[in-house]
Amino acid sequence: MAVVLFLKERGFQTPIDPSFSIPEMSSFPIAKPVDNLDELKQSVHQQVNEYRASKNLPPLQLDPRISEEAVKHSEAMASGEVKFSHDGSKQRFQAVGQKIPYRMIAENLAYNSGYADPGRKAVEGWIASDGHRRNMEGNFNLTGIGIARNAKGEYYFTQIFVRSR
Questions:
Q1: Could you tell me the end-to-end alpha-carbon distance of the chain, in angstroms, rounded to an integer?
Q2: 68: exposed, middle or buried (Cβ count in 10 Å: 0-12, 13-18, 19+)
Q3: Measured over all CA atoms, what is the biggest interatomic distance in the chain, rounded to whole angstroms?
Q4: In what residue span(s) does the SCP domain sit (predicted)?
Q5: How far apart are the C-alpha atoms of 142 and 60, rounded to whole Å?
Q6: What is the DSSP letter of 139?
Q7: In sequence order, what are the residues at sequence separation of 6 or more whose Cβ sits closer than 8 angstroms to the Cβ of residue 35?
Q8: Quick check: helix, strand or coil at residue 164?
Q9: What is the pLDDT along the chain (165 residues), one digit of tens a residue?
Q10: What is the pTM of this model?
């Protein structure tokens, strides 16, 4: 997993918790693949908001304009077009900014395979990581979620957090 925070006012990216390592993935599927990625996206959104509620934080509104950019990145990672990384985050953030003026933006990524509930596994991983958790607990009001699955059954998650102006 990886996390990056971009403060538009300062114009720089700050990697958070770069030493975090991704647990080794299972080499064989132990669960039937989740076919409905929209339901999976809704589940991730609900889990993130439930976590925020447990910290007395307001829920994040799921915004399709932000999700569009998150989906593009997840699909590019799942297809192997780009590696699993925040590479290109500046362009994603600029694309979001053309649709929604923002004060702050951040991104969480995850990938996994072989789990009955890959969305829950991604959210649990984010909660367990200081940098990801900071993004989940951040002063954001909007979010976009993109999920893609490749032929190997690997799920790629991109969640973008936005504090609109």
A1: 28
A2: middle
A3: 45
A4: 47-161
A5: 5
A6: S
A7: none
A8: strand
A9: 555 555 444 444 444 444 444 444 444 444 556 679 999 999 999 999 999 999 999 999 999 999 999 999 999 999 999 999 999 999 999 999 999 999 999 999 999 999 999 999 999 999 999 999 999 999 999 999 999 999 999 999 999 999 999
A10: 0.82
